[in-house]
Amino acid sequence: MMPRNLSNTLTIFFFVLVSIAAFGQQSTESMHMDIQQRTEEIFDSLVQIRRDFHMYPEVGGNEKRTSQKVAEYLEALGLEVKTGIGGYGVVGILKGAKPGKKIAWRADMDAMPSKAPDMVEFKSKYDGVRHICGHDVHTAVALGIANVLSSQKEDLEGTIYFVFQPSEENIKGALAMMDDGLFNIIDPEEMYAMHVTPFPAGTIAAKPEEMFSDYKRVDLLFDESIDQDSLFSYAKKTILSMENVDPGSKFWNMQNMGDPEIGIAGPKSIYKNYTTVDKNNFSIKEIKNGILISGYLSFSDKQQRDSVVPKLKSEFSSSQFKNGLKEVSLVNVFPTLDNNEQLTHTSLEQLTQIYGPNRVLELTGVVADGRSDDFAFFQPKVPTVYFFMGGSNYEKGIIAQTHSPIFNVDESCIKTGVNLFSSLLVERLK
Predict the structure, then answer these.
(1) What is the pLDDT of residues 311-344, one digit of tens each?
(2) 41 and 178: one domain?
């Protein structure tokens, strides 16, 4: 039996701990309620901002007006603003009233060349240029997050960097910003980004590691004395044999990626454990030290990717060309997005606790149409998570299929992005 005085002291100590924990939980819940209220207040203005960017789209390397608008908005919020980073890149720095972690949010700003008719009333005023990849939405969401969290500055612990990146579509902007000293200006412990997808508006999704298939060129180098016609025919056949998806599979209808059962978020996803081959993209040429044959493959994961070179070598080792093969190698074509496993799981869990499992999805498959995002270039520098954000409203016929002539978004997704990702940053700052 412990002394009575010690017992009383421990009881009081326990009561204080419980009270502090309860207050902290209540305070955090209150912040998330404030986030949602503030988002409601500014939502209409964010829609107008998005529509302004949509009407005045600028392709990579030409985002002068967009950059200026972004900088002016951030300055009006009281953020420290840096401009001209890697071209028209902008960084806004929001410092909370209390010390804490440092976290970055990245949004891409550039539009794309497109002659397709615009799907909305607020049409592009620049002939041949359109926002058909959703970067106008990304920029509006990031500005909304900056607005909402600025209003909670006195309760924030730490620093948030808002990175507005140019030239994502031509895969130049991330590297340009880093070459121009981005990570001398910011030093985040974590970094986040998102992209609009055809998922229903109101939802977000992510998964650890690959989000997009890993698109690679395979190079086979042979001795120049080999007969080229027969070699090329056999090499093509051998590369094609690396594909492990049945020709009649539903896999090949890219609309099935959104299927609730077999799509990339479905419990029975068919978009995993795959290797595919670009059947119309083979080449042969004579180079200084031999004959080079190239093809292109996509992989759902590292295991699929790492198995292909040994498989090709094995196939050739039992062929008539076994003595002529000098080298097999995989070459990067696009950067490969690779989410941090632990950070992804933690982020999804935290958002699920706040907004529920119906709005926060963990993907089971990998996007199979050969896309990527140069956000991948930031990933070796800092732990990152890249999210998909739904922008479709199927009942209204609004399909957020990026790079498509019919691309359109349900603008309610702006509210979703601001709410969920503001809450995420608040949670991650703790």
Answers:
(1) 999 999 999 999 999 999 999 998 899 999 999 9
(2) yes
pLDDT of 304 strictly over 90: yes
Alpha-carbon distances, residue 115 vs 61, 73, 118, 131, 205 (angstroms): 19, 30, 9, 11, 31
Checking DSSP bridges between strand 157-165 and strand 325-332, what pairing results, if any? Answer: unpaired
Confidence of residue 224 (pLDDT cuts 50, 70, 90): confident
Positive or negative torsion for Cα 123, 124, 126, 127:
negative
Residues 120/410, Cβ–Cβ less than 8 Å: no
Together in a domain, 387 and 420: yes
In a domain, 172, yes or no: yes
Contact (CB, 8 A) for 215 and 407: no
Dist. CA 426–CA 43, nearest whole Å = 19
CATH of the domain at 317: 3.30.70.60
Could you say which DSSP state residue 249 is in? Answer: S
Picking from 332, 352, 374, the residue at the C-terminal end of a domain is 332
Alpha-carbon separation of residue 72 from 65, 84, 132, 298, 319 (angstroms): 11, 13, 25, 42, 65
| Helices 135-150, 4-55: crossing angle, 10 deg rounding | 140
Tokens of 88: 């028209």
First-to-last alpha carbon distance for the chain, in angstroms, is 39
Whole-prediction pTM value?
0.90
**Cα–Cα distance measured from residue 412 to residue 292, given in angstroms and rounded to the nearest whole number:** 51
Question: What is d(CA 198, CA 9) in angstroms, rounded to the nearest whole number?
Answer: 58
Phi, psi (rounded to 5 degrees) for 408 = -155, 160
Query: What is the count of structural domains for the chain?
Result: 2
SS3 407: coil
Cβ burial of 331 (10 Å; 0-12, 13-18, 19+) is: exposed
Task: Note whether residue 227 is domain-resident.
Answer: yes
CA-to-CA distance for 178 and 171, rounded, in angstroms?
13
Tally Cβ neighbours within 10 Å of residue 314: 9
Could you count the other beta carbons within 10 Å of the beta carbon of residue 213? 28
Rounded to 10°, the helix 302-317/228-240 angle is 140
**What single DSSP character describes residue 217?**
E
> In the block, which residue shows the tokens 């909370």?
96
Specify whether the CB–CB gap between 308 and 243 falls below 8 A: no
